[in-house]
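Form 12-C: Joint structure prediction
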Amino acid sequence: MAKQRESTFVNMVVVLFLVSAIAAIALAFVYQATKEPIAKSKLEKKKKAIRNVVSEFDNNPIEDMFKIPVEGADSVECYPAKKEGKIVGYAVKTYSKKGFGGLISVMIGFDPDGHIHKTAVLEHHETPGLGDKMQRSKSTFSNQFDNLDVPNISDKDNDGIIIEVTKDQGTVDAITAATISSRAFCDATERAYNAFKKIKK
Amino acid sequence: MKKLNIFTKGFFKENAVFVMMLGLCPTLGTTTSAINGLGMGLATTFVLVMSNIVISLVKRQIPDQVRIPSFIVIIASFVTIVELVMQAYVPDLYDVLGLFIPLIVVNCIILGRAEAFASKNNAFDSMLDGLGMGLGFAMALTILGSVREILGSGSIFNISIYKGDGALVFVLAPGAFIVLGYLIALINRLSEKA
Amino acid sequence: MEYILIIISAIFVNNVILSRFLGLCPFFGVSKQVGTAAGMGGAVVFVMTIATIVTYLLQKYVLVSFKIEYMQTITFILVIAALVQLVEIILKKVSPALYQALGIYLPLITTNCAVLGVAILAVGTDGFGLIKSTLFAMSSAIGFGLALVIFAGLREQLDLTDVPEGMKGVPIAFVTAGLLALAFMGFSGIA
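Section 2 - Result
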């Protein structure tokens, strides 16, 4: 039976170094191998989200993507959807940092006249069973944004924000027991609309 | 120890969750549904089996004083591999399990088995041990996830089984604790009678 | 104002144990007596805060700069393991009594998912600079200690009451934890 390697200082340092080095190399290898599939699945998710939120199109919105600056140094990505050369909608990839679990990412599709066509949650870290109800598959919360006539919503409490939950004098029915997540969704939608206004002229 | 015994003890006699009370964080944090529990259990099993095998192969080469840090590096590597592979091929499950995937590295089960078994047995037996403990863990998580999903969302494996919403509390933190408490009491009772 | 929000949110609303499910093993292992629970809580505050500071700097200046974010899990856990060793050495010299009392649970802080979990959460939260991350870590650890001490008090009481045979020990502890978690949910209206 072979002897256990002794715990001398040199042995310890060498072994630890070797173990870490082998680990780092193995991981770099796996990282390279999975880089493309990860990028691909993220792209697929984006494509699906765009298709979900705007009317039928025949161009490649991802290729035609342009950025719209929002507050500070941030910007949102806008994907124009065209059919036979004419604009049929814009998909805006918006976000809100005010989610219960942090950043949420939403794709909002606008019709050319400013109505929201449809929405789709891309990324969130909200509580399962509560905040995650902002997903279309979990509850009807986001349905109230479909066909929302945003240009004609009044700012009841005059705070410059028009898309708000009823608690904040708005018209959006929040998810029960998930006000923060609901507010974040409204925040994201408001951000998208403000960006949309800039290009709508 | 008989080979079969090495494999099966992880399911009942030494079940990680119900008997040894290890790996509690992912047990409560990822069992909001049967599928989530199962996914987490399988990811953990992969790491457990692979790290058990590798550790049992190199155990003689690692000086005793640095074995814990070395084990941790080996385990962490497999966790990262699981992270990357899941991100690439099952992104939805990856998003749902979130923070708990990297936390597999501090799952006491894995370091525990490395210390208690893999560092003292050959690769094949270590693989069996890892597989048994891991699948037993996965089974416990799936059971807990199913109960919480049935009571809390009215479905199992995303198939709706009764109309209307369930009692939301079971999908949340308090429900997790309470259901696990009763499950353990039930299992204690059953194993007493057996 | 934002800082106060971070503190209250981390201690009460998103309590590390009762709402995020992190740090459960020590929660059920060390919470039998209020004294030990308090000692553990203190040790965790120290380790968690420093760990988050170090891992934040590591993430920002090494992992992101060299585009090796995938090494996060390995490097973070190694930093934590090293820190715990350090704390052990310091504690042995400074307070041998506490060192004895904590026993096996001190090295177990390494595998405490709360420490690694909070570190990962801090670097993953948008808009969290070094100061906010440190505040977040300190508050989370205080929340951990708070839940631990409260639970220890509850368990001390439980030991004196008449519990049905099947529920004695672990099961009733879990149900109690669930009720405590339910109580803490009441805080979610604040933030």
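Section 3 - Comments
The interface with chain C takes residues 20, 23-24, 27-28, 31, 97, 102-103, 177, 180 of chain A (CB under 8 Å). Helices of chain A lie at 9-53, 179-200.
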